[in-house]
Give the backbone structure.
Amino acid sequence: MNTINWHDQVKVGRGATDTGSGLLSAHRALEVARDLHGTGRWNGTGLIVIHDAYDSHRTASYEWLGGLAALKEGEHYEIVQAL
């Protein structure tokens, strides 16, 4: 069974980030990664890079913006499998 190390396996990619510690964008990236994992779109191995964590989180959170289904691999996130 794979144990996910959320803080090491989830990274914030390109796009807007915080001007300070980066904690808010990192928190949003974690939420998106958890949602993607919960729906089986990320199996929890390797890294997942969430691009523009604010926009991706907003899109995933609101059905009128398309919800989680609107997030596209390669655009909103990338999965980098473990070597």
Summary: The beta strands are 10-12, 47-50, 77-80. Residues 1 and 44 are 10 Å apart (CA to CA).
